[in-house]
Amino acid sequence: MTTHLVWFRNDLRINDNLALSAACRDPDARVVGLFIASPEQWRQHDMSPRQAEFIWQHVQSLSHALAQRGIELRVHQVGDFNDCAEYLKNFCEAQHVDALFYNYQYELNERQRDAAVEKALGRDVVCQGFDDSVLLPPGSVTTGNNEMYKVFTPFSKAFIKRLHEGLPECVLAPLPRGDELSVTSAESFDYPRADVDPMLFPIGERAAIAKLREFCQHPAAAYPGQRDFPAIDGTSRLSAYLAIGVLSPRQCLHRLLKEHPQALEGGSGSVWLNELIWREFYRHLLVAYPKLCRHQPFISWTDNVAWRQDNAQFVAWQKGNTGFPIVDAAMRQMNATGWMHNRLRMVVASFLVKDLLCDWRQGERYFMSQLIDGDLAANNGGWQWAASTGTDAAPYFRIFNPTTQGERFDKQGEFIRQWLPELGDVPDKYIHTPWVWAEKQQLTLDYPQPIVDHKQARIATLAAYEVARKS
Ligand code: FAD
User: Is residue 382 within 6 Å of ligand 1 at its C-beta?
Assistant: First the structure.
């Protein structure tokens, strides 16, 4: 009997899992699953304790789903990625594995790890990788010169054209391959874990699919008008599931098209589709420009910006104590739940880089250490966009004003009051400038004064970028 090994990584699901489906195609093969935790590597990648918990819970859930189909999931822990090759070699020898199936990860360390594994397994084990976490494989959407697009809009147009030529199909969950197995609870990973709010992020593939259905049936239609307002629950909040592969982008696309058949033609649903394509854009960029994985800026001259090293200001930003209510409410939302609204990610990133002139890489790392949906491609893309160092980024002279951003996107301060109860008594009119109200009332608020003067900070930042550009 042949033995097929499925190495699960960021694809913790049984539905529409290309590697799992391919491994199960031969009805006579014995199929074994494996998940390898690598805490040392997670530390180096700043993975958040919330994401670690989310992974842990989903490994348990996957283990049960596979066991119902007669497939065992082994869970093992190594130090860092360097230990994977030896472990897999020994595992394959001991289990008489003939073929290894896995879904690609596109980050540099992960690709190096996979190359080392394939080399170690040599000819003894046939290895098959799949482009599972994307709608279209990196490198397949290119300009006429066969190059990766550097600007999103033409990428998106070419991407949609490719989708018109043929949609990537979803594959079914494997059929049961034998009697249901019993599951023994795996040992916990040697990594800090933090609670995940089950109301915000219910555990399991079924819950994720239900969330996707619910979003596509209702909020997706109103998404264009609601997605920028953090007080409204107007976005899908599926990023945490997509980041660790509890859902696939193909499932998202097909569910969207079922409810909004005109999404590919620019009709209802197309704005949400565009966000899925942003996700693809950043993944394709990682492969085309591996330097992005090394935290280098896409635009080289921006590395000459003389960043300010003010630890007190950085800590104030981290903790949500900058004195700018929209920034602080957003940071406290992320610190408390592991998730932050997209509009606010842009606002707080801009504030850190353009108001505090702090190196964007510090913010990028801090985000990874807190986010439940931490994803190198999207996070790096978002930070480089905000810092004006990336492809198709905001131009460096475009600097968000944190006060007017608050006024535009949280007019009555509904979101702010949710996260900053100390501003509960501040009238709507002053919710974005509580220091003005406090001065008028001759009150001392239990809330900090703004840590910078936005106008002056803007001038200093423009000057710093100008100097770097000319150098
Ligand atoms: P929706 O609005 O419902 O969008 C659907 C899906 O599309 C998301 O789940 C996500 O997978 C994808 N998506 C949406 N917007 C973007 C985008 N701008 N770039 C890439 N993919 C996108 N997203 C992450 O998944 N992980 C991160 O670590 C991350 N870090 C970010 C850091 C910064 C500074 C910025 C500006 C953005 C970041 N994003 C990140 C992108 C975006 O903010 C989140 O994907 C989104 O807020 C998740 O909420 P949602 O699932 O409700 O999104």
Answer: yes
Residue identifier of the C-alpha nearest atom 6 of ligand 1: 276
Task: Say whether 102 sits in a helix, a strand or coil.
Answer: strand
Q: 278 CB under 6 A from ligand 1?
A: yes
Per-position DSSP letters for 293-312, written without gaps between them: GGT--SSGGGGG------HH
Residue 375 in contact with ligand 1 by CB distance below 6 A: yes
What number does the ligand 1 atom closest to the CA of 240 have? 25
**Ligand 1 closest atom vs CA 383:** 34
Pocket test for ligand 1, best of 337, 373, 389 (most atoms within 8 A of CB): 373
Which CATH superfamily is 3-130 part of?
Answer: HUPs (3.40.50.620)
- Residue 4 host element (H or E): strand 3-8
**Whole-structure pTM value:** 0.97
CATH entry, 133-170+205-288, from 1.25.40.80, 2.40.160.50, 3.40.50.620, 1.10.10.10: 1.25.40.80
Q: Which residues pair with 31 in a beta bridge?
A: 4
Q: What is the pLDDT of residues 370-423, one digit of tens each?
A: 999 999 999 999 999 999 999 987 888 889 999 999 999 999 999 999 999 999
What residues are annotated to the active site?
A: 275, 278, 307, 342, 360, 383
Which ligand 1 atom sits nearest the alpha carbon of residue 215? 3
CATH of 300-470, one of 2.170.120.30, 1.10.579.10, 3.10.290.10, 1.20.1560.10: 1.10.579.10
Atom 44 of ligand 1: nearest residue by CA position: 342
Could you tell me if the CB of 223 is within 6 A of ligand 1?
A: no
- Per-residue pLDDT of 102-136, as tens digits, reads 999 999 999 999 999 999 999 999 999 999 999 99
- Could you tell me where the DSSP H helices lie in 297-446? 311-319, 325-337, 342-350, 360-370, 376-386, 402-409, 414-419, 434-441
pLDDT tens for each residue of 156-191:
999 999 999 999 999 999 999 989 999 987 778 999
Q: Which residue carries 């014995």 as its tokens?
A: 30
What do you get for the CA distance between the two ends of the chain, in Å?
Answer: 65
Instruction: Classify residue 148 by its DSSP letter.
Output: B
Looking at residue 219, what is its pLDDT?
86
